[in-house]
Amino acid sequence: MRNLLMKVSYDGTDYNGFQTQPGGHTIQDYLEEAILALSGEQVKITASGRTDAGVHARGQIFNFYTSSQIPVERWCVALNSRLPEDIVVTEAMEVPLDFHSRREAKRKTYRYTINANQFPDLFGRRYQLHHPGSLDIEAMSAGLRHLIGTHDFTSFASRKSTKPSHVRTIYDAWIETDTSMCRPGTRDQGLIHTYVSGSGFLQHMVRIIMGTLITVGEGKLKPDEMKRILEARNRAAAGPTAMGKGLMLWSVEYDITDGVKPDLWNT
Amino acid sequence: MRNLLMKVSYDGTDYNGFQTQPGGHTIQDYLEEAILALSGEQVKITASGRTDAGVHARGQIFNFYTSSQIPVERWCVALNSRLPEDIVVTEAMEVPLDFHSRREAKRKTYRYTINANQFPDLFGRRYQLHHPGSLDIEAMSAGLRHLIGTHDFTSFASRKSTKPSHVRTIYDAWIETDTSMCRPGTRDQGLIHTYVSGSGFLQHMVRIIMGTLITVGEGKLKPDEMKRILEARNRAAAGPTAMGKGLMLWSVEYDITDGVKPDLWNT
Hints:
The structure is a homodimer.
Chain A: E1 2-10, H1 27-39, E2 46-47, E3 56-66, H2 75-80, E4 87-95, E5 105-115, E6 129-130, H3 137-145, E7 149-152, E8 167-178, E9 191-198, H4 205-217, H5 225-232, E10 247-254
Parallel strand pairs in A: 3-10, 5-6
Antiparallel strand pairs in A: 1-3, 1-4, 2-3, 5-9, 5-10, 7-8, 8-9
Helix pairs in contact in A: 3-4
InterPro entries (chains A, B): PsdUridine_synth_cat_dom_sf, PsdUridine_synth_TruA, PsdUridine_synth_TruA_a/b_dom, PsdUridine_synth_TruA_C, TruA/RsuA/RluB/E/F_N
Binding site for substrate (chains A, B): 110
Protein name (chains A, B): tRNA pseudouridine synthase A
């Protein structure tokens, strides 16, 4: 028996989220079907966490147990040939038997992309929220900085959250802009990428943070009010939940050195 | 009666090319239907040229005549709300009545994108040819340079071409690479963007140039053999026709100053 760890990218547009659910058509279902087709084994994979319907991943991590003798370096290509073209496994390695993708995740980073140009970017349209109105990016950055640190994030969690504690730590959060597609002489502001990196995230947490930051960017909320919203510990104090399509699980990092290539864990 | 000129971007993946044809479902059909829905006029648009099925455009140009009194600055948003989300009109302006998008095009630039990483880039997969094998980019650049200048491009044209002359001028052609997505410690070579800018292009010309350059990149053909292929004036002398999905009409430039914003013409 071996414990295999894999890194997977997916375009979540056409799926009902990562985790298996009664409606089917999830990323997990397709991964488990591909493993079954390849190895003949009906496995249950464990991921670093779920992602919502329509949310994407650049570097989701999962692991599973297998008795298959297929060499570890063959798995990526063999699985990809059995997966839809919008799910791609990019790394595979053997890890200690007690390794667990969710419990041992030390840091997760999400990226949320807003297209603040007048027109949608049709080549990136599946991975962006289009917001043609003007946004105050400085104010959004200032608001975002209030979230760094250890806080009770109840105001930024779905009311459906059943977690016993809503205390999480955001290690870092920052905004990067890409103005390469702006048309000269227009109000185009380019792509606004917001990165949020933390110990773990509650249901809808990044999307509610983004919906609130957009309200700040529109000038309807002062950046310092993020503090008040945190302190309210009440979902009603925060802004709307931003659409899932702009969100991408960017990377998951672990703190282990045995039997793993370190480059997997830091990208 | 006014002559309106527009710039349009499209994702050609799901269309039967730009130009109206019996099978329907072309970019031109959707543009003419949107104009009909908006203005009530059944117009015939004239583009800078056609693009094949599956080929994309960042900056295609077309014009048409209208009696509509809708102000020119309203057209983009009004048309986009009547177009599928993979066709976006980004500029509109009035031009002299005798302006013709195809006849007056002075320079067209195409970009062809190869993903030379081991794994497909799922977020850009619709706009790239995936070539996981190693490519000699220096050799491809050297081969490409032989095409700059005025030549008879019969070897690089579809056998179905009915043009009386196959002489065209390539003003410039160059390769840019983007290694931002390469995984460390792998044979990943990143994205290889080939730009070809010329007076005009024959049917399949850029795709046959690319199919031949890939053969050069694979080491199966020496860069200097591009000269011999040009001189052969025979389609059989060149390499295969590369897939349409990697090709994008990047920009079309015109040489007029009356009644047009110059920034349209140089991007």
